Amino acid sequence: MTELKGRHVAAMFVGGFGIIISVNLALAVNAVRSFPGLEVANSYVASQSFEDRRDAQDALGWEAQAAYRKGMLHLSILDAAGTPAPVRDLSVHVGRPTEQRDDAALELDAAGTARAVLAPGIWRLDIAASAPDGTPYRHALRIRVNP
């Protein structure tokens, strides 16, 4: 058995902390690469009208639901009575919550269905529309695609 000397302890110390630091750097680089960026250009300005926009949208009483089965994404937006809402200017965007690489705009047919190839995992569906009176409707849904 060899004797534990100062250089052995120094090597273990440098090696251990070297591993910790390199793992932390790798995680930090990947986190920054995968973050899509800001939600809004100026959060203070966006916050000034947030409550008014939220109250107007809540007054619509609309509820969005999405389902994904066999390569088809189905979206329904229902009013407070549970019937299809009178949606205008509908745009739908699908992507991963943490990165922009897989983002895509979807074109829905009259039944609210679009063909989409989604890999297993969590997806975010961003919905933008307006009511007949011009009230904007914005909603984000998370859907899980099972393998």
Structure description:
- This protein has 147 residues and is α+β, with helices and mostly antiparallel strands.
- It has a single domain (43-145), classed as Sandwich (Immunoglobulin-like).
- It has helices at residues 6-34, 43-48, 50-60; strands at residues 63-69, 72-78, 88-95, 104-106, 113-115, 121-130, 136-145.
- The strands form two sheets. Strands 4-3-6-7 form a four-stranded antiparallel sheet. A three-stranded antiparallel sheet has the order 1-2-5, with no helix packed on it.
- The chain is elongated, with a radius of gyration of 24 Å.
- It starts with 5 loop residues before the first helix and ends with a strand.
- Keywords: Membrane, Transmembrane, Transmembrane helix.
- This is Nitrogen fixation protein FixH.
- It comes from Palleronia salina.
- It holds the Pfam family FixH.
- InterPro entries: FixH, FixH_proteobacterial.
Structure, briefly:
This protein has 147 residues and is an alpha+beta fold. The chain has three helices and seven strands, in the order H-H-H-E-E-E-E-E-E-E. Pfam families: FixH.
Text of the CATH class: Mainly Beta
Query: What are the low-pLDDT stretches, counting only 5+ consecutive residues below 50?
Result: none
Indicate how many domains the architecture comprises. 1
* Morphology: elongated
Helix content: 25-40%
Task: Give the name of the CATH architecture.
Answer: Sandwich
Q: What is the average per-residue confidence, as pLDDT, rounded to a whole number?
A: 90
Oligomerization state:
single chain
Terminal CA distance reads 53 Å
Order of helices and strands: HHHEEEEEEE
Tell me what portion of residues adopts beta-strand conformation: 25-35%
Strand adjacency order, main sheet: 4-3-6-7
Q: What composes the largest sheet?
A: 4 strands, antiparallel
Radius of gyration: 24 Å
Q: How many runs of DSSP E, i.e. beta strands?
A: 7
- Remind me, CATH topology? Immunoglobulin-like
How many helix segments?
A: 3
Secondary structure category: alpha+beta
CATH 4th-level superfamily: Immunoglobulins
